[in-house]
Design goal:
- It is a single chain.
- Helices cover about 65% and strands about 0% of the residues.
- It has 14 helices and two strands.
- The N and C termini lie far apart (about 60 Å).
Amino acid sequence: MKLTLSLFSLLFLVLACSSKPEPVAIGLDGTAYFEPQRSTDQQKKLVSALQEVKGKFEKDPSEENYIWYGRREGYLLHLQKAIDIYTEGLARYPDSYRLYRHRAHRYITIRQFDKAIEDSYKAIALMEGKPVESEPDGVPNKFGIPKSTTQFNVWYHLGLAYYLKGDFNKAAEAYERCMQYSDNDDLLVGTADWLYMTYQKLGKKAEAEQLLDKINPTMSIMENMTYHKRLLMYKGEYQADLLLAFEEAGINREVAIATQGYGVGNWFLIQGDTAKAINIFKEVVANSSFAAFGFIAAEAELMRLKK
């Protein structure tokens, strides 16, 4: 009997250990996505940064510490945990447009676009009349200079949520407002790229082309090189295929597809090469970068093309 019980206990432990983890996001097509495997060094850095901010939060649950606690959980792709932290923070700081801004971002990551839109409008109402404020980066650029602002990010993510939902008129309105806060080259190219694609979706080709007047190869870009190259591609100053051919530079194709795939695929779609666009979109969603905005956009595009 003791042997039987021991074997039963061992079997239970094996089954428990072999059970699948819970997905952290569900794709638009129903695909379950899980926290990715990372190198030991990557995981250690992410966990260490989380533990540091969690310690600060436990000593002082300030608005700022709620934000950073949620951001660090989000970087580990503990997405629902991040949302729960922001929600708890909003119960304590109901007028925090910053917390609404960050929760909206994570609602986009888990494909709950309507909730992201609702949070963005709450942030807009609460930040009305407030001075424009710089937003610190979770992953600083190589110069250590934050480029974005809270106001920019609220309008940017509102435009993105509408775009991913397929409401391109509302997306255009949001990105046009975002342009008012795009006061450096990094922010300009980030907004211009999405607004260009939005105008093309709406058949506003003249407005789309007019956006390109501000784009040139000598812009001062610290972070958004991918958007800059795509905009140059739209102008005919960069070849589309080159944006996906980085193997010779030591960057594998999966990385290139994750960072550039959606924009290039959408460019081929605009040009009428639907078959090539679909192939690129499928490559995008075949890799592990399910939290990337381009990945979600490729999902949305494939869903629309099926209809």
